[in-house]
Fold this sequence. Notes:
Double Stranded RNA Binding Domain; 3 helices; alpha+beta; elongated; single chain
Amino acid sequence: MRGLLWWVMILPITACGYQVLTPGGITNLGVSIEDPVLARDLNDIVQRELLGSGPQTSDAADQWQLRLLEERYQKTPIAVAAFENHAEFELVLTWVVALDNPAGESVVDEESFTVREHFTRDNRRLVASFEAERAMKIPLQSELARRVGYWLRSITSQEDR
């Protein structure tokens, strides 16, 4: 009986084509980053989160082109007092991207992706706090790359139909 119930629940899900979207590389994607300093910093993250380790299409004419137009980083104080040992901030990281299809036509002119994180700074150890804040930016960039990847997969799968 339990096995029959399991099949009754699973069969409609698999029959409708439902799949869990997993991170991984998009094989026909080219990525360009406008700012050369940002390109150097993001090269590993883009390779790992968007392109993956699979084979890449070498023909540029057959590739979707993702352009990272801008990265905005903001640190907004939440709780700061003159004589306190700690200060709290909200870190906001935003990427602005554009997407062109393989024919070179613009599919999305500008799309923003934003992540936020809470950060507590120790005012007695400002140098260490600066390094900790800088280290927090890497996981935020990875999260943005994952979100952009999910967005890309949804757009490219709709266009391929």
